[in-house]
Amino acid sequence: MRRFLPLLPLLLLLAACGSAGGSARLGGGISAPIECAPFARALSGVQLRGAAADWWWQADGRYRRSYTPEVGSVLVLQRTGRLPSGHVAVVTQVVSSRQILVTQANWVHHRVTEDQPVIDVSPDNDWRTVRVWWPPSGQMGVTDYPAHGFIRAARPASHEGIAQATPGAIRAAMNGW
User: Fold this and answer.
1) CB 127 within 8 A of CB 120
2) In this structure, are residues 124 and 90 in contact, taking their beta carbons and an 8 Å threshold?
3) Does the residue 140 lie in any domain?
């Protein structure tokens, strides 16, 4: 141990460079102290406010709501014990009738995760119950979450457009937009 003591400051510096706190890292996620709703609003253009779960009801009459995913739409998860305010995520790709990819904030605390899988586990294939990828474990989560459905953004979106807009959405959400 004694022979490693002179290396300790260097090792601590290297460890700090590799940590997620305060750094922006694409691919594995972007560390950002923002909530899901302001981020989804900035990324999707869906101008709703308040708790994520309330977006579904607020969208009535303002935005088209659906039970079918579409790139650029906002997936709205209901309130649960684990999600007391619900959750929103922006669809970046429709992989199949039962799998999508989403970009979202704060699914993992203070992280923006891009192109994360979400699967429909509802018995009627209607996206009323989903499972979400859990990045810390590197696998699909085991919890079933009830979903309200999808809110359609007013403007059409593409995977490339969403990826390019993500850094700006992070800045906007961090600035309270």
Assistant:
1) yes
2) no
3) yes
Burial classification of residue 124, based on how many CB atoms lie within 10 Å of its CB (0-12 exposed, 13-18 middle, 19 or more buried): exposed
Sole residue written with tokens 């400051």: 9
Give pTM, 2 decimals.
Answer: 0.82
pLDDT digit string, tens, across residues 52-65: 999 999 999 999 99
> What does the CA dihedral 63, 128, 103, 90 come to, rounded to 10 degrees?
0
**CATH number of domain containing 67:** 3.90.1720.10
| Angle in degrees, CA 116, 121, 122, rounded to 5 | 135
Rounded to whole angstroms, the Cα distance separating 162 from 28 reads 17
Query: By CB neighbour count within 10 A (0-12 exposed, 13-18 middle, 19+ buried), where does 61 fall?
Result: exposed
